[in-house]
Amino acid sequence: MKFKRILLKLSGEALMGNQQYGIDPAMLTMYAREIRSVTEIGTQVAVVIGGGNIFRGMQGAAKGMDRVQGDYMGMLATVINSMAIQAEIEKQGIPTRLLSGIVIDPIAESMSRRKAISYLVEGKVVIIAAGTGNPFFTTDTASALRAVEIEADVILKGTRVDGIYTADPEKDPNAVKYDFISYDEVYEKKLSIMDLTAFTLCRENKLPIMVFNMNEPGNLLKLVSGEKIGTLVSEG
Q1: Which in 41, 49, 78, 152 has the greatest CB count within 10 A?
Q2: CATH number assigned to the domain comprising residue 58
């Protein structure tokens, strides 16, 4: 096993499947099965999921909504998604704990580093909702922060593409995939893997980032087991 403790970052949009918004039960089931597969080999798993399938604070702000209010609405959207993935993982027979960056009893416990690590060691999947609990920070930044807090070996950023490319592979057929790229190269090439705050936090704490296709069944287990899947971002 290559990684003992991971933080899996999922986008809210991924939960839509082929729908225009909301949660596709088939996507939930697939993700829960993928997570179960790595817990079965002893991997400790924390999950941070976005809320873009329900509400995005930035889009609300662009339409004239107060940015702070919009960001808090986005945090609550992540709580809904986190509750959904929690229920599905537990249906797969895996114990979970839902922690939150904002106080939201009786749905979730308040996020605490010690609590999160304790639950991970016990073999529970820890789902961390509501971002950092503060406006102006994305769920990318929240995932970087939580990964550093829980001393994760890596952030696994599950996307619908199989890694980082020289250009958007969905738009440019000549785009070339990187198997490895350094933090410095990402800055130099201005590649948008995560927002700058999140990426800088990873770099300063020497936390590797793996970008991979989460929608390909079996990929998560292959990656955790050490197979070369996706793109690794770390020190040169």
Answers
A1: 49
A2: 3.40.1160.10
